[in-house]
Amino acid sequence: MSASIKQRLKLEMFWPTFDPFLFCAFHNDDFPKGNGQLGPAASLSGRQIGQDFAGINGWRMYHGSKVPGFPAHPHRGFETVTIVNEGFVDHADSMGAAGRYGEGDTQWMTAGKGVQHSEMFPLVYKDKPNPIELFQIWLNLPAKSKMVEPHFAMLWNEQTPVIDVTDEQGNKAQVKVVAGNYRLPSGEIKSALTPPPDSWAGEANNEVAIWIIDLDPHAHWVLPAAAADLSRTLYFFEGQTGELDGESITIKEALVLISDASIVLKNTGTEKARFLLLQGRPIDEPVQQHGPFVMNTRQELQQAFFDFQNTQFGGWSWPDNDQTHGDGAGRFARYADGRVETPE
């Protein structure tokens, strides 16, 4: 095995992650045409409605009954970073924030001391299929930030930095910088949009990076060196074959890498190759997790369940647990203070 690669792991729907990351799900569904009510224009017969993860006909309802997705549920103690490469998500939460985002947008939510939210996948097109491809990444919070105020942020696709790189043969690579800094060969730094105020990613010394890397056929690109002793994992989620420092790699692999060396990545296939990079300094604190709550001790977990039972983390003011935003809505974000934002 190459000295750059510490471990190689296979990818399923839920991907292996390492401190400071807790979880990464890859949702890739070939949803059919919509039925005019944001659900599928297809029979739901044979599906385990409310718990449909089987992938019948290439798509899933997840916990939805009429619209695919995840109706209202609570979180405490960490952050969710949801990157939608294709398709749309309708968000609503107990802070009063809401939005429809997708087609490259990222939603970053700090659960902090507690929030409820729903994440539904509206099938907005009635005349064509509604494929969706997204990552949901859980980024831990350190003990000092577990009980901060919840926060909702939208990182619009149009404002997210994208770096174009051309190799010596004229083949192209593209790096989308959702979190972190990217140093160009000139020394110029391209910085991601600002993460939420209490995020582990907000401290430069933690070197948190969330990048999506696209390589054209036969292209090669150099992953820059970072500090030593970071968690650094590269996920090969689309394409055929590649090489990492000369070692052959294949689609649906997670490659756990050393962090303080530059590494040459090549696409040896005839189709575009796509990778997700998750990198960051470990928080290195005890982790106690049960379902949607992530704390440092069992006592704190028990308190989280008690608090939710008693306060519902602010309650749920929306008409539906599987809240959606209508057949004609475009991309928007409405914040808890009433401010409405659309991508420019």
UniProtKB/TrEMBL annotation:
Transmembrane feature ranges: none
A GO molecular-function annotation: quercetin 2,3-dioxygenase activity
InterPro entries in UniProt: Pirin, Pirin_C_dom, Pirin_N_dom, RmlC-like_jellyroll, RmlC_Cupin_sf
Keyword Iron recorded: yes
Cofactor: Fe cation
Gene3D superfamilies: Jelly Rolls
Cofactor note: Binds 1 Fe cation per subunit.
Assigned keywords, A-Z: Dioxygenase, Iron, Metal-binding, Oxidoreductase
Entry annotated with the keyword Ribonucleoprotein: no
Residues engaged in binding Fe cation: 73, 75, 117, 119
Pirin C-terminal domain segment(s): 213-314
Domain Pirin N-terminal: 66-139
Assigned EC number: 1.13.11.24
Family indicated by similarity: Belongs to the pirin family.
PANTHER family referenced in this protein's UniProt entry, alphabetically: PIRIN, PIRIN-RELATED
Name of the protein this chain belongs to: Quercetin 2,3-dioxygenase
